[in-house]
Amino acid sequence: MIFKDYAKYYxxxxxxxxxxxxxxxxxxxxxxxxxESKKILEFGSGSGIHGRMLANIGxxxxxxERSQEMIDLGYQNYPPQNKDENFFFFQxxxxxxxxxxxxxxxxxxxxxxxxxxxxxxxxxxxxNANRQLKQGGIFIxxxxxxxxxxxxxxxxxxxxxxxxxxxxxxxxxxxxFEEKNLVDVDYLTFVEELPNGKISKIQETHKxxxxxxxEIINFSNSTGFEILHSEEWMSQLPPSQKTWGVCxxxxxx
Length: 253
Ligand SMILES: C[S@@+](CC[C@H](N)C(=O)[O-])C[C@H]1O[C@@H](n2cnc3c(N)ncnc32)[C@H](O)[C@@H]1O
What we know:
By secondary structure, the protein is an alpha/beta fold. The chain has two domains: about 5-145 and about 210-250, Rossmann fold (3-Layer(aba) Sandwich); about 150-210, Single Sheet (N-terminal domain of TfIIb). It is built from seven helices and eleven strands. The chain has helices at about 10-15, 20-35, 50-55, 70-75, 120-130, 145-150, 215-220; strands spanning about 40-45, 60-65, 85-90, 105-110, 135-145, 155-160, 165-175, 180-195, 200-210, 225-230, 245-250. S-adenosylmethionine (SAM) binds near residues 44, 49, 95 and 115.
């Protein structure tokens, strides 16, 4: 199981990720491709940062997240008794969990689609999005883009972050299976408690799959969607060999 002990440190590890700007970007895509949207389902909602920001600007957000630890992390900052009535988390699997069939948009952000590491799982996620959308509803999701992943190739990376209590060092070591478009990222995370110097170690392997545009088009066509647009995540440039993260927008036919 991934996003377990590691989940406790997720928000600290990504403290410099610009969730506000990303939320503005997602909101601009929703306004462009389905302007009347109100009710939104988020797949792999994690600790709920995008979801709560979207709820705060007026959308009704429902999140499906597999890791209870990620959901709990979200509630540490926003206790249930204070929870925004426009934002609800459900523990579940976005390839099969059903909430309702009247969503205007489904969103899935920060490579959740790439965590679906087989064609079957990717198709199941699209089918599960499709059956919960209204006719004409949209699905916005980002994923690792195969042409760029194999041009640049995942590299060993070390990330260091800290706050007043904790110092975290995370080593990410990729093992590539190019012929299958798969990468196993071995995360070895050292957590130092600064007040007493105690160090603990967390190990998780995250399996990720890269996709190319032909696959996304084929999967869309076979799951009741048409593809409206694909662009580089945030920059909005056309997908290219320089584009690690691509964002696609599909519409339910
Ligand atoms: C990189 S995190 C992104 C979390 C959040 N979307 C964000 O932007 O911070 C990927 C998340 O997807 C969740 N996830 C991956 N596959 C899932 C699935 N099949 N069903 C539900 N959640 C899933 C993981 O548990 C994890 O919380």
